[in-house]
Every structure is written in structure tokens, then in C-alpha cells.
Amino acid sequence: MARGASIQQFQELATGIRTVGDIRRVYTYNAPLAMVVRGTADQIALATWLFNEIDQPAAARQSAESAIYKYPVPPPPSPAAPDPKDTVRVFYLTNSQSDQDFQSTVSKVRSALDVKTIFAYNSARALAARGTGEQIAHAERLLQQLNPTVQAGK
To answer: For 33-71, how does the pLDDT look when each residue is reduced to its tens digit (9 = 90+)?
Structure first.
């Protein structure tokens, strides 16, 4: 995407990295389509993975194998604490015919999972989600029902 992307698409990708990675300091330079990310080593690793995951030719996305990014977070302080939102996954909704259809599907997933860390990248029909392993598995099942040709990112 960044290669040959419009400025709007590039900015959208930066917003996705900022949102899903929970990284406040993501800076973009539009003329060269350059991005600077400032954060912890773990945040930089996630930003790099997410950028590379989405910045692929369409043919590569169509045949992507399912994979999950595990973000290293400390274990919960007690067994009663909620599971950390340490799992990130990118899904490609190749069957979405319009931006409106795609956004409708994203809204359904967002409300069903009750997770705010979901980002929709319209031009690639990519949905990046961050949550617990259980939430991401639920998202995959839901997307398979809503969009049978969904591909999970590698």
C-alpha cells in the first residue's frame, strides 16, 4: 500500500498502526511516504509487523495463510484479572463489494466482540483486530459467517 499508495491510504495505514498498536507517537511525512514510530521495542515490532502485513500486493493477500501476532505483555497480576489483549490479527474481506458493505461487516464484528481496538483499512479490505486470543478466535468465526471468503493475514 505505501508503495504507490495515495496520501489518504498512507495516512489510513498510519492511523491503523497507531490504533491497533496503541502507539501515540506515529509521525508521517507525506511527500516520501515515510513513517516514524516512537515507542517501546515491543511496540516497534508490532508496528513493523502490521505495516508489512498490510503493505502487500493484492495477490499476496488473497492467498495469505492464517497467522496471529502475539504481543508480549506481562501476565495479569492475579488470576481474577482479565486476559491481556495480546493477540493481533489481520483479516482480508475479499468478498466485500463496496466500502459500505465492508464498513457494515466491521461494525458487526466490533459490536459482537465489544473490542475498540479494531481498525478497518478500506482500500485493502483489511480488518486489523487486537484482543484476547478468545476474542480473535471469535472474530474469525464471525467473519467466516459474514464473509465466507475471509482470509486471515499471515
So the answer is: 889 999 999 899 999 998 888 877 665 555 444 467 876
* b/e per residue 38-49 (b: at least 16 CB within 10 A): ebeeebeebbeb
**Whole-model pTM above 0.70?**
yes
Task: State the cell numbers at 8.
Answer: 489518504
The amino acid sitting at 57 is: P
Nearest to 72 by CA among 86, 82, 89, 51: 86
- What's the sign of the alpha-carbon dihedral 148, 84, 50, 154? negative
Angle between the N-to-C axes of helices 7-21 and 41-54, in degrees from 0 to 180, rounded to the nearest 10: 140
The ranges assigned to domains in the chain are: 7-152
